[in-house]
Amino acid sequence: MNSPAESADLLIHPGWIVPIAPSAETLCGYSLAIRDELIVGLMPREDSRHWQATKELELPNHVLMPGLVNAHGHAAMSLLRGYADDQALMPWLEQHIWPAEQRHISEEFVYDGSTLAIAEMLRSGTTTYSDMYFFPNASASAARRAGMRCQITFPVFDHPSAWGRDADDYISKGLRLRDDLKHDGLISVIFGPHAPYTVSPESLSKIATLAAELDLGIHIHLHETAGEVAQALKTHGERPLNTLQRLGLLGPRTQCVHMTQLNKQDLELLVQSGAHVVHCPQSNMKLAAGACPSHELLAAGVNLALGTDGAASNNSLNLFSEMHSAALLAKLNSSDAAALPAYQVLKMATLGGARAMGLEDQIGSLEVGKQADLIAVDLAEAATQPVYNPQSQLVYACNGSQVSHSWIAGRPVLEAYRLNTIDTDALAARTQYWQQQIAAHRI
Ligand SMILES: CSC[C@H]1O[C@@H](n2cnc3c(O)ncnc32)[C@H](O)[C@@H]1O
Ligand SMILES: [Zn+2]
Fold first, then answer.
1. What pLDDT, on a 0 to 100 scale, did the predictor assign at position 442?
2. 72 among the known binding-site residues?
3. pTM score > 0.90 for this model?
4. Signal sequence: where (predicted)?
5. Nearest residue by C-alpha to atom 19 in ligand 1
6. Could you tell me if 227 and 295 lie in one domain?
7. Does 194 contact ligand 1 (Cβ within 6 A)?
8. What is the extent of the structural domain holding 388?
9. I need a surface site. Which of 124, 156, 329, 435 has the fewest CB within 10 A?
10. For residue 1, what pLDDT band results from cuts at 50, 70 and 90?
11. Among 87, 93, 287, which is best to mutate for testing ligand 1, by the most ligand atoms less than 8 A from CB?
12. Structurally, how many domains does the chain consist of?
């Protein structure tokens, strides 16, 4: 007796599927079914005959894989792309970026800059991003408008900005935003203390207490440069990671961004605490900050996510390019060509990010029951032919322009290379407006 047909909104028949988990293998000749916002089937193509689908999509030259997770960035800084290059972190921040932010940051700036960033990220395969920036309400509005999944890490500083007066003010505004968005299926809100050198131990301690009470994550720039660690040793007599641990800020809810400076004790602390590390290789290289020892962290069992950082220090928000850099940097840094092979990089850019954000049960791999956040990558063009190993192609040959389709919670946001949720003409006009404003006030 035939079993009753299963139903789907969409059945996709790609050349290959790279599910990331539960298996690291590439599936050839498989189909994937989506119903509502979920993945409801993953089966050999011949079995898909038993499915009734509203729509079917043949993608014979494509790889289907989880949408990429950009685990660290400052989306609105896309409007400052190319504003100040070839500088080390502190002169770049103190002499260029922070004065420009003081002059221009507003709700409109953040909404428009975030939309520009989202357009770039969606075009290059990112379906989830983490954002730390002023006016996080505007960033959340841009994400919601575009149908993008997003982790908002509301900023906390001790000094004032257009968005907050002091640490208490940033925290109360951020927690209000978190209450407003509590029921949003695509947006989560967590603490984003900027760094141990801009947030006092008292404020960090307050954040630790609140985060534990409310079960909220913490996302922080940490051990980005040797100067940061040296300064902390001079001022506080300990390394920033030790300060975080002493204040109760280090645990499985903590996302440590950068970690280019790592000694043996730091590594042990990360392992014991269950904290996550967000690796941002291109920003670290451009600012000559250092290299996060990604292969050592993975070998020790630390969960690693991948981020671009802001477009002002990268200067792109393209996770395909970031994966390529992560792989090459690990090999160079360890003098080991086997360090960080393609699968590990793909996992870092998908499931690793999802895990860091506490979203592992929902996204990061193509498994039945998870949210349908996925992308199709076309390998038909010369630059990605021939195909011996699709995973190798994704990390070492693709540059992001091969992403043709993207779904977030089952919704098609990119179809045949076209963005469905962003008015790109209006966005170009707003970008032009901001470029003129920023250029006119440049010092
Ligand atoms: C609180 S909003 C984010 C804040 O961070 C600044 N920023 C951008 N990139 C970096 C980086 O690599 N390290 C430290 N701080 C960074 C950004 O300009 C905003 O002021
Ligand atoms: Zn950053």
1. 79
2. yes
3. yes
4. none
5. 133
6. yes
7. yes
8. 6-66+372-409
9. 435
10. very low
11. 93
12. 2
